[in-house]
Amino acid sequence: MTTFLPVPDYHMHTPRCNHAKGTIVEYAQAAVDVGLSEIGMSDHSPMPNGFDKAWRMDESELDSFLAELEAAQQQFHGQLVIKAALEVDYYQGAEDYIQFLADYYDWDYLMGSVHFIGDWGFDNPDEVFRFETCDIEQAYCDYFKQVELSAACGLFDIIGHPDLIKKFGYRAPQDSEAVFEAENAMLQAAKKADVALEISSAGLRKPVKEMYPHKGIVERAVGLSIPFAYGSDAHSPAEVGHAMDECLSVLHGFGATQVVQLNKRQRQMFNFMDKT
Predict the structure, then answer these.
(1) What CATH number did the domain enclosing 44 receive?
(2) Planar angle of CA 252, 257, 258, nearest 5 degrees
(3) Distance between CA 204 and CA 242 in Å, rounded?
(4) What is the pTM of this model?
(5) Number of folded domains in the chain?
(6) CA-CA distance, 131 to 180, in Å (whole number)?
(7) Is 112 helix (H, G, I), strand (E, B) or coil?
(8) Each residue of 15-47: pLDDT tens digit?
(9) Cα–Cα distances in Å, from 80 out to 130, 139, 144, 170?
(10) DSSP code per residue over 51-109
(11) H helix or E strand, kind and range, residue 222
């Protein structure tokens, strides 16, 4: 049986996003309890002009987030590395504000995610009904175009949950050439920008019951030497490290043996193969 070393979990949230629970210390203790040596707190960042305000921290909360994070870093010094990060929504026109966030603090990484197609928050349970009347194939193409642009903008270190649109189990036709090409354009943008993709266990806890991204994307990304970061997308301490081995097994199955490790926005590779 193949065994894997614990890798950094780079995706978790605090109650400031209004849909998570647990203090940073509680996340840190949960990480220690499951044998992790490094995590990253990457709560939903503020965005300009009240964008999606109900589902993210306010700009006025950035300093309290950082103060809580720095206190936890001190408390767990020598026991657990806690990286400072944000999960930042990408949409065209937000680039200047994203740069403002990037300059706000000496972050370890920024994760870019797409949660909207135009005005449609497609992963919001209150808006799932729109899948019933939309052109799902076109929605997938539009989604991957936005992810492509998020990778190409050069503002992020990791692209979060790269096929989030499948969250509720609505699927584009499996033989859709248009969706396949949209996925490939996203992968080429990630390759050109030298940005990592997230392999996320969160989808296993959602109606789709599948990790993000699907195995076809993982296989093509590994073939292009695009690196991955692992993330649980934990919204409670109990979810820290969720299904890590399952994600690493998929990566290993396509020939990958490393995930990214980030420090002050500088990347190195972390070998997850147990050579003992």
Answers:
(1) 3.20.20.140
(2) 125
(3) 9
(4) 0.97
(5) 1
(6) 20
(7) strand
(8) 999 999 999 999 999 999 999 999 999 999 999
(9) 43, 41, 35, 39
(10) TTGGGS--GGGHHHHHHHHHHHHHHTTTT-EEEEEEEEE--TT-HHHHHHHHHHS--SE
(11) helix 215-223
